Amino acid sequence: MMRNKFDMQLEALNNSLISMGAMCETAIASAVKALLENDLILAKKVMESVRDINQSEKDIEAMCLKLILQQQPVAKDLRQISSILKMITDMDRIGVQAGDIAEIVTFADLSESKDRVHIADMAKATIKMVSESIDAFVKKDVELANQVIEYDDVVDDLFTKVKNGIVNLISKDKKHGEQAVDIIMIAKYLERIGDHATNIAEWVVFSITGIHMEVS
């Protein structure tokens, strides 16, 4: 009977984590959409959504601590709960960085930037990483988690392309200097989101195998 109750609580915890992951995906996608379309209203909505993501982190943390204190889970279950506690910290940072991108959109007009194509590609790659890291947790799929970890190289390569594009942009016309800084900042936030998705995937591997190998 106690185990049934614990399993139900654990399922509720997993569902909350999935919901938080979906909020993070939406925040990244919306922040980049706001950037590409110069949509200030959407950018402000993303900034507001960061509070909801942060609240989710607090709610999930409370659920985890309640489970640990009340149910005193055995080793495997405790490993899963402790992994979730680590994952939500990274997910909260993902939300913050999506908000940071949206904030840049509110004060910087990047509508004529020639380098946004790589920003869009970076966003697509990081959303893929966040989505698949959560999927790996849901499916308990070590192979998928490892694919996410390896895919971080794709985001790093795209970041290098953005930097190279910025150098070319400034070398052709110095007046693009301020715009270039904003683009680099956005690319850096996306790179960090990729790093956080990698961290999530590493904790997924740990939750399943008990082995935590930091590669980021």
Topology overview:
Blueprint (H helix, E strand, L loop, with lengths): L1 H36 L2 H32 L3 H33 L8 H24 L2 H31 L4 H33 L7
Level-2 CATH architecture: Up-down Bundle
Q: What spatial form do the alpha-carbon principal axes imply?
A: elongated
Binned strand content:
under 5%
CATH topology: Methane Monooxygenase Hydroxylase, Chain G, domain 1
The helix fraction, in percent, is: over 70%
Largest sheet, in brief, is: none
Briefly note the structural class of the backbone.
mainly alpha
Could you state the CATH homologous superfamily?
A: Phosphate transport system protein phou homolog 2, domain 2
Radius of gyration: 19 Å
Helix-strand pattern, N to C?
HHHHHH
CATH level 1 name: Mainly Alpha
Query: Average pLDDT, to the nearest integer?
Result: 90
Topology, number of strands:
0
* Low-pLDDT windows of residues: none
Distance between the termini: 41 Å
**How many domain regions?**
1
Number of helices: 6
